[in-house]
Amino acid sequence: MPATSETPRHARGKACPAIVAALAALAAFCPPAPAAAAGDTQVVAASDPHFRYEGRFDFRDPAAPVVIWEASRIAIDFEGGRIAVRFGKATGQVYFDASVDGSRSILELREGIPVKTFALPVSGSGLHHLTLFKRTEATAGVVPFEGIEVEPGATVLSPAPPATRMRIEVFGDSITVGACDEDGPRDQWDDRSTHDAAFSWAALTAAAFSADYRNISVSGIGLATGYVDVLAGQVWDRIYPTASSPRADLNGWVPDVVLVLLGDNDDSYPRQHHLSFPGNFVERYVSYVRAIRAAYPRAPIVLLNGGMWAGTHSRELGDGLRAAVAELESGDPGIRHFTFSHWTTNHPRVADHRALAGELVAWLRTQPFMGAAAR
Questions:
Q1: Residue 83: beta bridge partners?
Q2: CA–CA separation, 178 vs 353, rounded Å?
Q3: Which of 299, 374, 373 is nearest to 335 (CA)?
């Protein structure tokens, strides 16, 4: 049986000790902050206008916006020699990279564990820059952000605008999420600390073009079938990765380029369960892309294939993708396609993501629409 793009949740594996040690050298897990004495801190609420939010959040409670999707970012500048980050109750597992002036810590929040505030190392007084980056995907867990604690009387400021040249939105499954990318030889799903969206091909591609980006991807998801109880067409435009979620405001942030990498689970799920490849795959794929086109009428859309076994070896998936792409490209000059040469039997590791991003970036640099998309 070929490797599947989504490892069943009952599968077990252990992270490689060498990789764990290397990660520890790069970024230490940050312990919870000790309780602060009354009057010892100044709380800056999450609703403070100096915070910059990048991603698809649930802002219905401005004092506790829920951080949902992988690669969501929060930033603020602050003065003084102390800072702590405050969260509400997490569901599932949530991991963040927390960076103060480039010094990175990993924050771990888990459902049922009442750790809500993390003190971060700060080097000296003066002006500092905080960035939070959500490493883990939306279906692994979400958490409300409740602001920061700084020294009494400290000033907070809006960060300098990021020097981005374009906006890229990416839709995909576990390959694009960065699932298992810091695991050892085996994929594992019990400990999401080794699932890091910061090293996915999507993040690396966006960085190569100095792009602001959104990663709206769900492990196990497919267009016609998959390992989760929703389909890609039901959640791509939602605030949460559920069919019943409120819809996101797609007018507030409009991409200049859209990248889509889907289809592996439409092949691997039925293959693993001795079922036929879904007969409505082409219809569902075409409908999905046309819905994106209706939302973003001017953005070039790049349809991707590959990265794991199915995209390279499955005849059924290959035939389905070629048929869908041909139908879409025949009626829409703004749609292109690209197939990765690099592929893996398990989920891509960081080195694999670098290879995938390298291929895609080299091809994108040859495409005239990338120059037109630059701001």
A1: 120, 150
A2: 8
A3: 299
What is 24-157's CATH topology?
A: Jelly Rolls (2.60.120)
- Alpha-carbon distance 36 to 370, whole Å? 50
> Which strand (E) or helix (H) includes residue 357?
helix 350-364
pLDDT value for 371? 86
Q: Is 317 helix (H, G, I), strand (E, B) or coil?
A: helix
Residues linked to residue 143 through DSSP beta bridges, in sequence order: 67
CATH of domain 166-373: 3.40.50.1110
Single pTM value for the model: 0.90
The structure tokens 């000296």 sit at 124
Residues 143 and 67: beta-carbon distance below 8 Å: yes
How confident is the model at residue 326, as a pLDDT? 98
SS3 289: helix
Structure tokens at 321: 């993708």
Buried b (16+ CB within 10 A) or exposed e, 111-144: eeeeebbbbbebeeeeebebbbbbbbbbbbbbbb
